[in-house]
Amino acid sequence: MCKMRKILLACLLTVSVWAAESNVYKVSYNAPVDKVLDNMLAKFKQEMLVVVWQLDILEEFKHKGLDKKFGENFNKAGLTAVRTLVACNGKFGNDIINQDSDMMAYCPIRITLTEKDGVTTVLYVRPSSAPRDSKAYQSLVKLEKKVTKAIEESMEME
After folding, report:
1. Residue 63, SS3?
2. How far apart are CA 60 and CA 92, in angstroms?
3. pLDDT reported for residue 14
4. Are 14 and 112 in contact (CB under 8 A)?
5. Can you give the pTM of this predicted structure?
6. Which residues on adjacent β-strands are paired with residue 112?
7. Alpha-carbon distance 26 to 125, whole Å?
8. CA 63 – CA 56 distance, rounded (Å)
9. So which residues are the signal peptide here (predicted)?
10. What are 28's strand-pairing partners?
11. Which pLDDT value is given to residue 156?
């Protein structure tokens, strides 16, 4: 029964993500940011999406004193965490460089995770939002599929 529930949830998430008419992929999980991030990092490693950089944005803002500087205007959304990571896959990166180096704006990829009330949302600018006439467009679409699949499958890991 639990496995069937996971399959149904995955299908619903996939449909909701595909239905969105947005250049931003967005999916939410009822789990803390640390769990989602740990699962994503493990899945990315399996999928050869090398994480080259991470940042705890909200903590960095606080460290820089922005919470005091902005006062009541700081984090009005009430997020409890904002993390970002940059990842790269050598094959896709090389293909995109060779096909249309201007499209390297989409590769390496950047993913942002936000948390509020125990729900973590994963945000990712879709490379398929690139100009369709770019010679790198098909590689960007394949990269997007690889990344979104890894994100979705990461929450199936235990």
Report:
1. helix
2. 31
3. 47
4. no
5. 0.84
6. 84, 123
7. 9
8. 10
9. 1-19
10. 121
11. 87
Dihedral sign of CA atoms 5, 30, 108, 23 in order: positive
> φ, ψ for residue 79 (rounded to 5)?
-70, 140
Under DSSP, is residue 106 helix (H, G, I), strand (E, B) or coil?
helix
Q: What is the pLDDT of residues 54-100, one digit of tens each?
A: 999 999 999 999 999 999 999 999 999 999 999 999 999 999 999 99
Long-range residue pairs from 153-158, CB within 8 A, at least 24 positions apart, any chain = 153/43, 154/36, 154/39, 154/40, 154/42, 154/43, 154/44, 155/29, 155/31, 155/36, 155/39, 156/6, 156/10, 157/39, 157/42, 157/43
Say how far apart CA 127 and CA 110 lie, in whole Å: 11
What residues contact residue 16 under an 8 Å CB cut-off, 6+ apart? 27
For the chain, the helix, strand and coil percentages under 3-state DSSP, each to the nearest 5: 55, 25, 25
Provide the 3-class DSSP secondary structure of residue 30: coil
Residue type, 57: I
Q: Which residues of the chain have pLDDT under 70?
A: 1-21, 157-158
User: How would CATH label the architecture of 2-154?
Assistant: 2-Layer Sandwich (3.30)
